[in-house]
């Protein structure tokens, strides 16, 4: 069986949070394959630790993916500040005799260096077109945990586990490996917090993650971090602001352009200008061609949580306008052109330490070491849809006994999707619209 088939059967998706099925990415042909080990979200620590703990596996998985897409070069992107990890990777690449193909490149400690399009530019100097994807400039990008999963797939092991950083205003910060489908509460309790009544939890990083409406969910292949903060923390208050309140506050916009001047996509040469979109909403402007630029927003949240000097909500506004356009079936149409990064870009990169301070997280920006704590949930609930594309179709029935790694959901015919597997051995006790539940035996 080919590596591509093994990756498909293993149910590998983007482990960095996007969840795009990896077998689809690796079916392309590319000049570059890039490893995103930047992990630019504050407080998250998964990728940097995996590269230090499993360098051979990640390098081999990355190399295999690179050979699969026919890449001429395989570039690992990692922040320069992780000197020890960079040294480990370089040494292992040399000893594995892959240094003619795989290279390690350091990036500045800035946000959002891990944005896929920013990473492509930093590593290759190429600009992904507006509303485009990396393959359009000859690049395929995968996450470091995804590369680890590719290595496991090459040895017949599907995705049944997920690495998660538990961070925030808590006694015990850690990074832990848990079965996919583990109750979120089982992971949160590792923080040392017993009563969560006064706390809110961000699913993902502080910048792009969302405040969970309920902490009774379950871990998916996309879960990367759980950031626990007091409900009165300013970041939680801003993230839970209602759309109507944001629109009201946004009427104070002075058109200073800071949201645009600091926008990572604008600085890459794209036409996205959030200050103009604020103007559209505040003044009821109807030019839909101008509004279409909202589709270029990556929702990195820099405009909203760092750039705006008076604390407005440009990203909220972008989301609002995008929803309006989608409801009217109005889509972005790219005008053929070449793109050049703006000349002042290098002077407008946002240092991570400044960002962390602005978010009010400076005192919480501490290590979250890899833990050997074992999490053995009695029941796991494995979502049919934890990836981009169609939900997996169950291939088991209630009452079936399954073993860890067994296929329990397949990709629908002729659809984009990813397979799902049992993350523990046990009995299938529920098959609902959203998930398959397995009780440990």
Structure, briefly:
This protein has 4 domains: 3-154, 3-Layer(aba) Sandwich (Rossmann fold), CATH 3.40.50; 160-233 and 360-376, Ubiquitin-like (UB roll) (Roll), CATH 3.10.20.90; 243-355, Fumarate Reductase Iron-sulfur Protein, Chain B, domain 2; 378-441, OB fold (Dihydrolipoamide Acetyltransferase, E2P), CATH 2.40.50.
Note the main attributes of this structure.
single chain, 441 residues, alpha+beta, Rossmann fold, Ubiquitin-like (UB roll), Fumarate Reductase Iron-sulfur Protein, Chain B, domain 2, five-stranded mixed sheet, four-stranded parallel sheet, 17 helices, 18 strands, 31% helix, 18% strand
What does the model show?
This protein has 441 residues and is of the alpha+beta class. The protein has four domains: 3-154, Rossmann fold (3-Layer(aba) Sandwich); 160-233 and 360-376, Phosphatidylinositol 3-kinase Catalytic Subunit, Chain A, domain 1 (Ubiquitin-like (UB roll)), CATH 3.10.20.90; 243-355, Fumarate Reductase Iron-sulfur Protein, Chain B, domain 2 (Orthogonal Bundle); 378-441, OB fold (Dihydrolipoamide Acetyltransferase, E2P) (Beta Barrel), CATH 2.40.50. It contains 17 helices and 18 strands. The chain has helices at 3-10, 22-25, 46-53, 55-69, 83-95, 116-124, 144-154, 184-188, 234-239, 243-249, 258-261, 264-267, 274-283, 288-291, 302-307, 314-327, 352-358, and strands at residues 32-36, 73-79, 102-107, 110-111, 139-143, 161-168, 174-179, 199-203, 210-211, 225-230, 350-351, 379-383, 393-394, 401-402, 407-410, 420-421, 426-431, 435-440. The chain has a five-stranded mixed β-sheet with strand order 7-6-10-8-9, with no helix packed on it. It has a four-stranded parallel β-sheet with strand order 3-2-1-5, with helices on both faces. A hairpin with a 6-residue loop joins strand 8 (199-203) and strand 9 (210-211). Helix 4 packs across helix 7 (144-154) and helix 13 (274-283) crosses helix 16 (314-327). The longest helix has 15 residues, at 55-69. The protein is globular, with a radius of gyration of 22 Å.
């Amino acid at each position: 069986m080919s590596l591509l088939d093994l990756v498909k059967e293993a149910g590998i998706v983007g482990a960095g949070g996007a969840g795009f099925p990896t077998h689809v990415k690796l079916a392309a042909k590319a000049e570059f394959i890039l490893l995103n080990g930047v992990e630019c979200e504050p407080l998250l620590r998964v990728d940097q630790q995996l590269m230090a703990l499993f360098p051979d596996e990640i390098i081999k998985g990355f190399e295999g993916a690179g050979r699969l897409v026919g890449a001429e070069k395989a570039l690992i992107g990692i922040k320069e500040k992780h000197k020890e990890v960079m040294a480990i990777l370089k040494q292992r690449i040399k000893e594995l005799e892959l240094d003619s193909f795989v290279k390690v490149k350091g990036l500045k400690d800035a946000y959002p260096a891990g944005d896929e399009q920013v990473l492509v530019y930093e590593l290759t100097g190429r600009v992904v077109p507006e509303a485009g994807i990396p393959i359009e400039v000859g690049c395929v990008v995968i996450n470091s945990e995804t590369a680890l999963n590719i290595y496991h797939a090459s040895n017949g092991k599907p995705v049944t586990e997920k690495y998660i950083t538990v961070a925030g205003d808590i006694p015990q910060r850690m990074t832990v490996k848990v079965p996919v489908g583990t109750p979120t509460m089982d992971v949160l309790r590792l923080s040392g917090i017993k009563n969560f009544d006064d706390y809110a939890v961000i699913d993902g990083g502080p910048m792009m993650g969302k405040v969970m409406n309920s902490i009774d969910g379950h871990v998916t292949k996309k879960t990367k971090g759980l950031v626990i903060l007091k409900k009165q923390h300013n970041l939680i208050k801003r993230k839970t602001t209602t759309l109507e309140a944001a629109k009201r506050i946004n009427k104070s916009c002075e058109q200073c352009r800071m949201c645009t001047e600091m926008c990572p996509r604008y600085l890459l040469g794209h036409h996205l200008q959030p200050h103009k979109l604020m103007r559209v909403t505040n003044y009821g402007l109807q030019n839909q061609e101008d509004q279409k630029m909202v589709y270029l927003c990556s929702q990195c949240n820099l405009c909203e949580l760092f750039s705006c000097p008076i604390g407005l909500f440009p990203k909220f506004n972008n989301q609002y306008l995008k929803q309006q356009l989608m409801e009217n079936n109005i889509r972005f149409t790219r005008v053929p052109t070449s793109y050049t990064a703006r000349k002042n870009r290098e002077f407008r990169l946002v240092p991570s330490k400044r960002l962390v301070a602005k978010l009010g997280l400076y005192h919480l920006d501490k290590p979250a070491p890899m833990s050997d704590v074992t999490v053995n949930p009695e029941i796991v609930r494995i979502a049919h849809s934890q990836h981009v594309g169609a939900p997996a179709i169950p291939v088991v029935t209630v009452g079936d006994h399954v073993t860890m790694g067994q296929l329990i959901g397949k990709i629908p015919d002729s659809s984009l999707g990813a397979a799902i597997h049992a993350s523990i051995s046990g009995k299938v006790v529920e098959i609902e619209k959203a998930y398959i539940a397995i009780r440990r035996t």
